[in-house]
Amino acid sequence: SCLVGSEMCIRDRLIRGGLSDVLTEEDKDYFLKVVSHAEFEEISNAAHMVAGDKNDIFSKAVEKFLVKNN
Description:
Layout: E1 13-17, H1 25-34, E2 39-43, H2 50-53, H3 55-68
Parallel strand pairs: 1-2
């Protein structure tokens, strides 16, 4: 989302491990409702510590987000 009359924009992306037992579907849905401009990506076969479980896939997801929003 961008501030009116400003060049400042805030981009958000929630990345969830598909096997996470910490971030529930309800938590994800609530976050996306509250932060309605946020993007969401789920990394299958990763638990809650996505960056540690699937570092290469996580890094690519972050890079894709940054390139898209830069």
